[in-house]
Amino acid sequence: MVYDKLYTARAKRPLLKSLILLSDESPEDLHRLVALRKQLKKSYELKVDSLQDNMFLVQIQKEVWGKPVSGHVIIDQGTRGCWIAYTDESGYFVKRVLEPFFNGLYPDVARVYFNYLQIQKFLETIREAYQGSSVVTYVAYKRQPREGKEQPKGTRLLWELGAEENLRKDARQYRIWIDSLTFQVKDQTGMTLLEASLTGRGIARLRFGAFSDFYHNVIQLYIGLATRWKTFYSERERRIEEGKVKLRPYLLQYPFDLEKTQIEELIANLTGSYSHSILFGGNPYFVANLTDNQDGSSFYLTILGKKVTITPMLRSTPYALWRIASRVQRVVGDGEILDASRGLQA
User: Are 22 and 230 in contact, with CB atoms under 8 Å apart?
Assistant: First the structure.
């Protein structure tokens, strides 16, 4: 009720940020989870208070460049297997304190990662929820020419009204990375009902509108999308049935062949988070065996032409499989994610 009143009046105020996280743990156990991680225990001061209705108030402090930065966040555990972390603290606090904190809790707490195709599907759902209203979008994304192209080198950040069509065109010519999608919903009279934004790393922001609308038509839809993709990555471990080995690989499909420099950059990017052994290194064919250092999951990563295939081994959690797909896309660019055995998108 407080947020409904607060964000339905035009005024200069911090955006309400909502981080979507996946976890089967309870925020009540945050002290225990932090104690298990030497770096978090050393860097963060934490205070957790239990509220009502599966909600927890958390105060977090960390030194950033020698100065203490602190803030509050409310964690809602009302949706099974999911945390929603709300804060109206500054973007600096979210970027420098809150996000690194949750990143450090992996694999007990996992971030969600969406590429541009997944966010476009989410936008279609938003339009269905607001039938009869107009939805105006702004898309921020990075694009980088592929090798051998005549376009100038470098990375550009584009903010354009109605940029979705440009985004689709650029996806065929460039390597692209989604940054955020901002949208405004207006009724038939032109009155603004909602202004919000989404990022590819599971953060939804409310700028204007009723919190109840934001919660039901953005947060819950976002959680629904995250749940579907968690299901897509689940139960893919290598297994043996009736004496036969069963594999459930998935792949990232691109409209262009991957280049040798991208393969080299990918392996360099994965070093530190993954133990790896290169089984075959070449171009256009590449195979490596990877193990997630924190989660223990293992998988084969194969690159051939336009496809990056990830084949889970004996232990492969959905969080680890989602994470490696995100890490690949961070280097290569956003791609279409498909079930390799069926050739279908989730």
Answer: yes
